Amino acid sequence: MLSVTNLQVKYGNTEALHGISFTVNQGEIVTLIGANGAGKTTTLLSIARLGPPEGPKIASGDIVYKGQSLLNVPPHEIVTKMRMALAPEGRHIFGNLTVEENLKLATFARQDTEQIATDYQRVYDLFPRLVERRKQRSESLSGGEQQMLAVGRALMTGSDFIMLDEPSMGLAPLLMYDMFRALKELNSQGMTLLLIEQNARIALQFAHRGYVLDTGAIVASGDAKELMNNPEVKKAYLGG
Amino acid sequence: MLDTIIQQGFNALQLGSYYSLIALGYCLVYGVLLLINFAHGDIFMVGAYVAFFSATALLGQYGFIQPGIPGWVVLALTIPVTMLLTSGVGIFIERVAYKPLRLKGANRLYLVITALMMGIVLEYGNLAILGASRKSFPSLVPRVLIEVGGATVTSLKLAAIVVCFLVFGLLHWVVTRTKLGMAMRAVSYDKFAVPLMGIPLDIIIIFTFFLGSSMAGLAGLLYAMNFPVLDPFMGALVGWKAFIAAVVGGIGEIRGALVGGFLLAFLEVTVAATFSSELRDLISFSILLGILTWKPTGIFGKPRTTKI
Ligand SMILES: Nc1ncnc2c1ncn2[C@@H]1O[C@H](COP(=O)(O)OP(=O)(O)OP(=O)(O)O)[C@@H](O)[C@H]1O
Ligand SMILES: [Mg+2]
Predict the structure, then answer these.
(1) How many angstroms separate the alpha carbon of residue A53 from the centre of ligand 1?
(2) Is B253 within a domain?
(3) Chain B positions touching chain A (beta carbons under 8 Å)
(4) What ipTM goes with this model?
């Protein structure tokens, strides 16, 4: 469904991705793992088509989703036409808006009123804490609650392909398991997930397949279980 | 005595209406793009000229429309024409001058300098095209004198004040209650994440310039009707004052622009009435300086909370 081929990406003159290739099939959970600075965030920003000045520039290669190249699709159409959403690294929630307004904003371009109502329900079911804080300015949420809002917002775009950049960041262990349970639940409802995690162990327990990224290149890939038992991966990312 | 106070009160309200209408545009653009659009005062001037040409054309001065349309119809048509064409100029400047710099990730300083230069281009462009002779704005509707508590106010003056508050009410509704307004607030907080919500950033920016410039155009029209002599530099000083009013009110907060505009007008009128008009700007701006020293973010401004 998503296929990235020989993707070469730059920030200014420095190359951050040296021609990576990977695929994500419909209904899968795929994880990208790798150390700090490996290029995980860069990969997701490239797929979401967030370009310069803040984002990276694609130098060569292709990103094809459902048979269409995304290279000339503007970022807002990645959401509205391709129905792919990104919950970005660092959450980027709109702190000056309430929780409810943040969710509502994600429906900006949607017309399917009934489905929107169902989606609100789904977000509030997955993250009941957001219900109590509906009217609160979102910058007053705790880090973990902001993370839930960021994921909830991605769901409210009505996408069926969601990219998550370290969704467990800042979550206490208990909440982290809640978050992954919520994501698993979404996946069982048919949502395709592309997940980035610092915590490789959890990511591999949770995903179907994984790719290991090291300084801009993919160095290992395969079934999540396979990767977990791969001695190299074990040594480098799973603490021996 | 009382009638003088009421009279001066209306003068201040009228002046404040122009300041506020212009300050709102500074405020919106700053709020959304963190850009101080120094060309905005000259957009007010453009508004006055657009209104002039629209009104005189409709009155039949250039021949392609037969004379005879009643003044109030001309006015009713001139209002939307002025707002639309003036906002067109504002949006054009955004597309041509600011957007390319923004896409290159230029430092904000360069954008501000570009805005200053755009203002100068508008002033001297006008001078080059229309020459130095001043235009006098035609009278479209008869000036009715209205008696209020012993003082007399013209209907035009009252109209400027009423329009300012109506426009503010409408703007407040747009910003707080509509999805577009919500998107504007979102852009002001975090531009990066806005496309991720499926929102085209450009549309929000264009909409912001549309709102700001059409309000400046409306202010230009109202001003020209009350002070019917137009010249290419009429927007410069008013623009600076409106900008200062927006900062004192708390730039980025539309309530602040409204309050700042009226505060400045009341200071000016009070100083001119009690001391002399030569001391007007000196004393008023010293007081504003005092307010900023006491509260650097302006009256309604909140210090930006750092985002983690
Ligand atoms: N805005 C930027 N400008 C220049 N270089 C950047 C920028 N963002 C990232 N880089 C560089 O690109 C490389 C990949 O960064 P990226 O953020 O994709 O890593 P990551 O795998 O997400 O790391 P982390 O786990 O720390 O989030 C790094 O070397 C980084 O320094
Ligand atoms: Mg990252």
Answers:
(1) 14
(2) no
(3) 103-105, 179, 182-183, 185-186, 188-190, 192-193, 195-201, 305, 307-308
(4) 0.95
CA distance B51 to B184: 28
Q: Scanning every residue of chain A, which has its alpha carbon at the shortest distance from the alpha carbon of B193?
A: A92
- Please give the pLDDT value at position B127: 96
pLDDT tens by residue, B136-157: 999 999 989 998 888 889 999 9
| In the predicted structure, residue B305 carries a pLDDT above the cut 50 | no
Domain housing A28:
2-89+161-237
- Does A131 reside within a domain? no
**Is A17 part of a structural domain of the chain?**
yes
Kindly state the tokens that stand for B21: 């209408």
CATH number at A176 reads 3.40.50.300
The count of domains in chain A is: 1
Give the structural domain span for B191. Answer: 25-234
Measured distance CA(B116)–CA(B106) in Å, rounded: 16
Q: Which residue of B has its CA nearest to A87?
A: B196
Q: Report CA(A196)–ligand 2 centroid distance (Å).
A: 8
Whole-model pTM: value is 0.94
Is the model's pLDDT at B72 over the cut of 50? Answer: yes
Query: What's the pLDDT at B68?
Result: 87
Judge whether B55 lies within some domain. Answer: yes
Decide if B295 is inside a domain: no
Burial of A207 (C-beta count, 10 Å sphere; 0-12/13-18/19+): buried
